Amino acid sequence: MKVRREVGAAPHRDSDAVWQIVVELITGADSNDIEQLDAAAGIASSIIADEHPAAKPIVVEGVGPRLVIYGVYGRKAMGVADPDALTWNPTDGDWTMHLPSAPEDLEWSKRALASRAPRIRVYDVEGDGPMAADAEQEASSKVEASAGVDWNIGEI
Fold it and tell me: Would you state the pLDDT for residue 112?
C-alpha cells in the first residue's frame, strides 16, 4: 500500500522549510536514527530547491505503508495546505528514504549520504524510480560478489 502527501514549496516556502515539514511529518517519539535527517538537510534542501520532488517523489519505506511525498511548486503551491498527519510513524524501526536527484549530482550525493546518512539514498530523477535503482544496485552487488573463480577442479 502507498500513501501520498503533498507539500507546498517555492514560492510559498523555501526548500529548508519544506525539508523541515517532511522531517516533522515522518518522525515521532519512537523514531530511529532521526539525526540522519538533519545530516542530510543540505542535500535534501538542494534537491527540493531544484524542484525534483515535483516530478518524482521523496519515498519513505519502513513501518507501515510506503509514503510518497511530492513538492508542489509555483502558483499551485500557494493553495496547498500543510500535509495531514500520518496515522503511523514510518521511522519507528528500520526505514529508508529515497530522494530524487539530477543525474549529474548522483555520485557525489551518494558518497555524501553514505557517510552521513546511510538510511537516505538518492535515485535518478530521469530513471524509473527508487525501487528500480535499489534493484539495480543489489544486482550489481551480487554480480561483483560472485565474480570469483573456483580453482578446485577436483580429481580426475
Answer: 96
